[in-house]
Here is the input.
Amino acid sequence: MILSETPRRIMVTKLVTWGHWFALSNILIALVIAAVYVFASPLPETLLGIVFLLVNWLSHIGFLTFFGFVIFVLPLIYALPRSRVIRGAGSTIAAIGLALLAFDALLYTKYGLHLSFGSADLIKSETQTVINAFGWQQWGFLLLLFVVWLGFQLVLANALWKRIERFQRFRLGIPISSVFVTCFVSSHALHVWADANLYHPILQQDNLFPLSYPATAKTLMSKYGLLDLDSYKQRKALQFESGIKGINYPTNPVYCSIDNNQQLVLLLQTDKGQINTKGSTLVRFEDHYDLSSNDPSARLTSLFGLPEIYLPQLAQKTPLVLELPEKLGLPVWLYSDNPISHQGIQRFSVSLTVFKQKLNQDNAKLAIGFMPTAQINQLLQDGLLNTNQVIISALTMDRDDIHPVAMYSNLTLGNSLSSHLDFASTLLSQIGCNAPSDDYSVGQAMQSPRRNWLVGTKGSKVIVMHNGNRIEVLSNGNYKIFDRQTGEESTEALNTGLLGQAIKHLTRFTQ
Here is the structure.
């Protein structure tokens, strides 16, 4: 009896060998694409953090790509061992998978989000404007780009198939797999240690790559009695960041023209009291917030459009909402009942008498005032609304909790979630500056809001608001979710996609 392999088994063996080389080629391509994630985020500050970044990059991207081969291509080889079918199907699957990886990388770079079912609604809302602007030329170009990419995969698949006998002579399977397995085990071991010791340069990379679920000390070490959870929680509760080390403000040079004929006034109420809007053209907006932890911070954040976590780094900066109009020829006036001790603001400050005099004149101006209720009501009574476009709001009187503060305006504003961080963008937009507000503020112009969420800071907390919820995140990663209407703690699951995007948006100005 002659023992020999059947033609089917020979073809299957050859296709499996081809598949491994095809997978290795696409792993190398995927690593190049995934380098976008590495360069999109600040490098870790320690050597150990950089080592973890490299081994995690190699192991995680390699694992994802090879896992895709095992799930989608390998079963086809055994079910339908025909070389042309397998090469075509493998090329199509690889082209789609790597295209999704590239799209996810671009999405992460711009919005801090990864593709997932949980982030689908958020991605849709963020990209709706861009998608609506696409014409048939743009869609045609994207389709052509994918066809070219698919063609490259087909050429690669055919080139490997023609040379498969030559590749079979190389015994590289064990060395290559050993490298990836070593990196995989090392990355998870390092993360377990980092989680147990709260080592931030490694833990900050948890959400860097898509579909990343690293092992943690809580779930692994505590299972085997190797971690004291009470001690872990206590150390984690006491961990805080050292703060912002530097700032880019603005992140890019701001170039725009303005309308020098505008008469625009922003007034912020500094005490309790009722603004008298009876018989006026002012419209009330309910869903507006002052997120600062104290009054001095609230005054500065309203002018800069940046949360108070940045204020120590802004000591030598001038708010763009004051500086840009002044340089372009629009008179700018500022009054504060409690003087603002900030070097970049003092030259705009005037006395109450001068401020009232400027408001009563029918001349072009940008005027910002922090004053008590009685003075605001007197200005309204004296005809402030006759010639001026006005926004009136208040500094919150309850710093221990977060409640909306009233906002009134005779401008055409969107009736959406807003905060004092939106004032800078709103004022500059109203005087005609069309520069991207993301270059100088975490807020947005209230005339045409693009986001249905807001982010800010209150002391050491990051505050994110979306729909009916308020998320409060401490610097150590602990968080609570509250219902914005009742103030009660909510049991809803954390929207990690939204939180990641909000924090990325918040930290755009860090060096």
Q: What stands out?
A: The longest strand covers residues 263-269.
